[in-house]
């Protein structure tokens, strides 16, 4: 198989936990990590050590892109660097697997999608929830018509006390938002994918910051600096689509609920689905049925969905196939996210064009 | 104290299940003195079931004119809530009207005005507020245990329990479908718990995906899909 020279931009947690291990396990397919980039020298040092890598490192991604002959780049930076790093990499002739969310704004996302088109390179976004075995079973059920027409969906990504105590997740400036862009985007992308990416036409949304700026709130994911907290800690929205369907979305870093929730529910004319139970509720042959899958099991590897995401990215590049999560789909979800914030700010329903 | 003289307008399901037994339960203070329904057989059934030996009327105006009544329960289809309540209030009766209050906000407003004008009580049958659990929650809210309530979710979702009766399915009788019939219970619950904040905008959807189809299972009996004129699903987002 053709050699694939990979560079990683941003060597923080997501690079070390999933991207680098994901590429390293594909060494037999000709995949090789050949350069790393991070603005923090200690992040580069610990990454080299953790994975036993002996490759050049860079503080500046433009220098890396100029000096190394890279085929593909993993963008694992904070959200505000997704667009500049991806566009620079695409322009340098690299295929890009960029972490979620695609960018800070739909405008940035649009420039990324345009750059991929212009430089004829692949742009995949790290929406790995699509590769969960349960999501894939539900997607097959949807595609086989088991749900009929999906007219309503509920997407929840809710934490009770999960404000991240590390990284840049509490900075509006760096991340573009809070739980909506960090964890809400996962369930939003999954639902959009399951619904076949209907065209959103309007959004009503609200955001609140009720915990992040308060001193002494329990942090089950570490303690953050309340003075630095500039994002929402709860967001909700109602999205209307051109096909008549509607989606209700909720995301929180902190809220007074019993348990964390990461799930989506679809209502279709033939069947309804609880995605991560998973169960399909239907009516057939004079009976109401609750269908549950048998024998669904993730492969016994660490981070199986992320591994699948990276395998499919590599396969798309090596065999010139379409990427499984194209940037243009994530541009649509980013428009919804932007509209939730705008609606929250204005108190009005926001049209999406 | 003198016993209150109560009359019922509409003696169908909710009257027989809740209102009549409810009044009989406080028989030391209330006596049922008249029944009204446009169906003679419904009056007969209610009389028999509760051994009530009281006059029955087909026309509530006639009943209100002929009988000496202190309080009226309005247990009619939704679209009759307004005319029956207005007539009762104007006849100087206090009114306990079933939920939903009416089939439009304008009708509801007219009912409130009539109560004020006649200086009579108008209460709506949002019975959910009298269960022990929501009362415990309300005490917690009022004691400040929730702090500032900034978001609420209110669900009243059935799988196939479609009421197989025209009064729930025909638009001109019911006003709407599950939003009016069961959604209003949870909406009232949420608003009551939240202290009735002022709503400023709502965006909503309604769909009819099952009711007008033939052969859909009805676990509460089979309805006539040709009669089904209301939504079978509704959702909304409300700002205060």
> Biggest sheet of chain B, strands in spatial order?
3-2-1-4-5-6
Helix content of chain B: 25-40%
**Main β sheet profile of chain A:** 9 strands, mixed
What is the percent of helical residues of chain A? 25-40%
Task: Give helix and strand order of chain B, one letter per element, not per position.
Answer: EHEHEHEHEHEHHHHEE
- What name does CATH use for the topology of the largest domain in chain A? Dihydrodipicolinate Reductase, domain 2
The chain pair with the largest interface is: A-B, 28 and 21 residues
Terminal Cα span of chain A: 43 Å
Write down the Rg of chain A: 20 Å
Give the gist of this structure.
The complex is a heterodimer of chains A (353) and B (240). Chain A is an alpha/beta fold.
Explain what the structure shows.
The complex is a heterodimer of chains A (353) and B (240). Chain A has 353 residues and is α/β, with parallel strands linked by helices. Chain A has helices at residues 13-24, 41-51, 61-67, 82-91, 106-118, 133-143, 172-175, 179-195, 304-318, 327-346; strands at 4-9, 31-37, 57-58, 72-75, 95-99, 123-126, 150-158, 200-208, 234-241, 246-252, 261-268, 271-274, 279-284, 287-291, 350-351. Chain A folds into two domains: 4-129 and 303-326, NAD(P)-binding Rossmann-like Domain (Rossmann fold, 3-Layer(aba) Sandwich), CATH 3.40.50.720; 132-299 and 333-351, Dihydrodipicolinate Reductase, domain 2. Chain A is 34% helix and 24% strand. In chain A, strand 1, helix 1 (13-24) and strand 2 (31-37) form a beta-alpha-beta unit. In chain A, helix 4 (82-91) packs parallel to helix 5 (106-118). By secondary structure, chain B is of the alpha/beta class. Chain B has two domains: 4-125, Rossmann fold (3-Layer(aba) Sandwich); 130-239, 2-Layer Sandwich (Dihydrodipicolinate Reductase, domain 2), CATH 3.30.360.10. Chain B is 38% helix and 18% strand. In chain B, strand 2 (30-36), helix 2 (40-50) and strand 3 form a beta-alpha-beta unit. The interface between A and B is medium-sized, with 28 and 21 residues.
């Amino acid at each position: 198989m053709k050699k694939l020279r990979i560079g990683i931009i941003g060597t923080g947690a997501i690079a070390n936990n999933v991207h680098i291990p994901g590429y390293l396990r594909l060494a037999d397919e000709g995949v090789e990590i050949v350069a790393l980039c991070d603005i923090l020298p200690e992040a580069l040092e610990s990454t080299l050590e953790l994975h036993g890598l002996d490759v050049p490192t860079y503080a500046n991604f433009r220098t890396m892109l100029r000096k190394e002959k890279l085929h593909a780049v993993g963008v694992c930076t904070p959200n505000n660097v997704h667009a500049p790093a991806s566009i620079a990499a695409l322009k340098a002739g690299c295929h890009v697997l960029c972490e979620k969310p695609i960018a800070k704004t739909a405008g940035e996302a649009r420039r990324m999608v345009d750059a991929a088109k212009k430089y004829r390179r692949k742009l995949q976004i790290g929406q790995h929830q699509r590769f969960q075995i349960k999501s894939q079973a539900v997607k097959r059920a949807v595609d086989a018509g088991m749900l009929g027409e999906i007219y309503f969906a509920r997407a929840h990504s809710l934490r009770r006390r999960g404000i991240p105590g590390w990284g840049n997740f509490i900075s509006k400036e760096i991340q573009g938002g809070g739980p909506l862009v960090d964890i809400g985007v996962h369930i939003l992308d999954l639902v959009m994918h399951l619904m076949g990416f209907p065209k959103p036409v309007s959004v009503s949304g609200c955001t609140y910051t009720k915990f992040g700026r308060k001193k002494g709130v329990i942090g089950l994911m570490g303690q953050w600096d309340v003075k630095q907290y500039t994002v929402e800690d709860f967001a909700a929205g109602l999205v209307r689509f051109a096909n008549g369907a509607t989606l209700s979305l909720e995301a929180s870093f902190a809220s007074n609920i019993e348990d964390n929730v990461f799930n989506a529910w679809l209502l279709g004319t033939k069947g309804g689905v609880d995605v991560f139970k998973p169960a399909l509720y239907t009516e057939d042959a004079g009976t109401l049925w609750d269908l549950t899958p048998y024998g669904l099991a993730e492969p016994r590897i660490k981070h199986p969905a992320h591994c699948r995401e990276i395998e499919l990215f590599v396969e798309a590049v090596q065999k010139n196939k379409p990427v499984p999560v194209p940037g243009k789909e994530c541009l649509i979800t980013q428009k919804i996210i932007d509209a939730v914030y705008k609606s929250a700010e204005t108190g009005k329903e926001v049209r999406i064009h | 104290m003198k016993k209150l003289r109560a009359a019922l307008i509409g003696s169908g399901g909710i009257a027989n299940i809740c209102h009549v037994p409810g009044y009989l339960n406080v028989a030391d203070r209330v006596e049922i003195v008249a029944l009204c329904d446009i169906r003679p057989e419904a009056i007969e059934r209610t009389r028999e079931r509760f051994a009530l030996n009281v006059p029955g009327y087909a026309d509530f105006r006639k009943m209100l004119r002929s009988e000496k009544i202190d309080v009226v329960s309005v247990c009619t289809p939704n679209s009759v809530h307004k005319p029956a309540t207005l007539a009762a209030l104007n006849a100087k009766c206090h009114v306990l009207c079933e939920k939903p209050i009416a089939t439009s906000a304008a009708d509801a407003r007219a009912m409130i005005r009539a109560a004020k004008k006649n200086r009579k009580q108008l209460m709506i049958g949002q019975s959910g507020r009298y269960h022990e659990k929501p009362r415990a929650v309300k005490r917690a809210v009022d004691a400040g245990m929730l702090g500032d309530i900034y978001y609420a979710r209110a669900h009243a979702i059935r799988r196939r329990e479609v009421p197989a009766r025209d009064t729930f399915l025909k638009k001109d009788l019911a006003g709407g479908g599950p939003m009016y019939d069961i959604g209003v219970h949870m909406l009232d619950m949420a608003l009551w718990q939240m202290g009735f904040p002022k709503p400023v905008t709502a965006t909503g959807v309604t769909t009819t995906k099952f009711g007008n189809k033939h052969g859909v299972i009805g676990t509460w009996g089979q309805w006539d899909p040709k009669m089904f004129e209301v939504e079978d699903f509704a959702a909304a987002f409300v700002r205060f």
